[in-house]
Amino acid sequence: MSTDGSCPTCHRVLESPQIASTVPIHRQVTAENLNLRRLANGLADDDDAKAPWHFKLLVVALCVYLGWRVIQIFV
Q1: β-sheet bridge partners, residue 2
Q2: Rounded to the nearest 5°, which phi and psi values hold at 14?
Q3: Closest among 21, 48, 50 to 35, alpha carbons compared
Q4: Which residues of 37-75 are buried (b: 16+ CB within 10 A; e: fewer)?
Q5: What is the per-residue pLDDT across 3-58, written as a single tens digit (0 to 9) for each?
Q6: HEC-encoded secondary structure of the chain
Q7: Suppose 5 and one of 11, 17, 53, 70 were both cysteines; which one would form an S-S bond, judging by CB atoms 3.0 to 4.6 Å apart?
Q8: 28 close to 37: Cβ distance less than 8 angstroms
């Protein structure tokens, strides 16, 4: 898509170009101000998110189950 919002091959307007022009310069998303961790977690601050307790429980249960299956191979 070109800067005016038109298709480069057929020159039809695909998206309204005023969306980009209404965003102030200091609010535009660039590579310098993009924080993917904050976007993915939905966190307002930059605290590291921890895994929930039920995920940890599932990992422990999986390890116990797989450990028991390995023991059954040799017994």
Answers
A1: none
A2: -95, -35
A3: 48
A4: eeeeeeeeeeeeeeeeeeeeeeeeeeeeeeeeeeeeeee
A5: 777 788 887 876 555 555 555 555 677 778 777 877 777 655 545 668 899 999 99
A6: CCCCCECCCCCCECCCCHHHHHCCHHHCCCCCCCCHHHHHHCCCCCCCCCCCHHHHHHHHHHHHHHHHHHHHHHC
A7: 17
A8: no
- The encoded tokens of residue 75 equal 């017994």
Q: How far apart are CA 27 and CA 5, in angstroms?
A: 20
Q: Among all chains, which residue has been given the structure tokens 């993915």? A: 40
